[in-house]
């Protein structure tokens, strides 16, 4: 369903992109290029792969080798499908369209002027580090929440297995 929505969006944006570009569209594309959003998209892809691997690692270690191999293969195939569908060639028109629809030509020009400054370039340069630091610190909060949710679930349903138990391979499809 999500992938269908993504493909529908790409088709819609591609149809829009064939119309003559407006001043806002031209400025939005300049801004998207100036912001190095392609590099940010690649960084996001890497973070998704790392996060998926880390999350799957905990689960996969409890599986039999045969099931672990199938699960890893399926996970890799799914990621490849997602990353292919969301390649930069397909995503850039979406970024340009959203920026052009969200900001006026004047606002886009002001942002372009800022990001061309030394301070603007420093902000762009440091943005991946900021995002990674925020994500890392957020994971601590999410870990705390996860343990609280698990404790809450155990108190609601004593039949649930303890989180530290190792399920047998028969519990996995």
Q: Can you walk through the features of this model?
A:
- With 173 residues, this protein is an all-alpha fold.
- The protein folds into two domains: 116 residues, no CATH class; 37 residues.
- Helices cover 80% and strands 0% of the residues.
- It is built from seven helices and no strands.
- The radius of gyration is 22 Å and the shape is elongated.
- The relative contact order is 0.12.
Keywords:
173 residues; mainly alpha; 7 helices; 0% strand; elongated; disordered N terminus; disordered C terminus
Number of strands: 0
Query: What is the end-to-end distance?
Result: 22 Å
How many whole angstroms does the radius of gyration measure?
22 Å
Total DSSP helices:
7
Order of helices and strands: HHHHHHH
Number of structural units classed as domains: 2
Low-confidence stretches: 1-17, 164-173
Oligomer: single chain
The structural class is mainly alpha
Query: How much helical structure, as a percent, in the residues?
Result: over 70%
Envelope shape: elongated
């Amino acid at each position: 369903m999500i992938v269908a929505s993504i493909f529908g969006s790409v088709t819609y944006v591609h149809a829009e992109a064939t119309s003559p570009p407006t001043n806002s569209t031209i400025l939005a594309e300049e801004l998207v290029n100036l912001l190095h959003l392609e590099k940010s998209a690649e960084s996001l892809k890497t973070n998704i792969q790392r996060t998926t691997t880390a999350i799957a690692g905990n689960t996969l270690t409890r599986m039999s080798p045969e099931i672990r191999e199938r699960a890893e293969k399926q996970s890799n195939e799914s990621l490849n499908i997602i990353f292919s569908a969301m390649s930069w060639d397909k995503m850039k028109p979406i970024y340009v369209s959203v920026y052009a629809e969200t900001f006026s030509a004047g606002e886009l020009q002001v942002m372009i002027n800022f990001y061309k400054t030394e301070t603007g370039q420093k902000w762009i340069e440091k943005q991946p580090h900021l995002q990674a630091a925020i994500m890392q610190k957020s994971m601590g909060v999410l870990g705390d929440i996860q343990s609280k949710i698990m404790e809450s679930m155990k108190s609601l349903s004593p039949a649930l297995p303890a989180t530290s138990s190792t399920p047998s391979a028969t519990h996995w499809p």
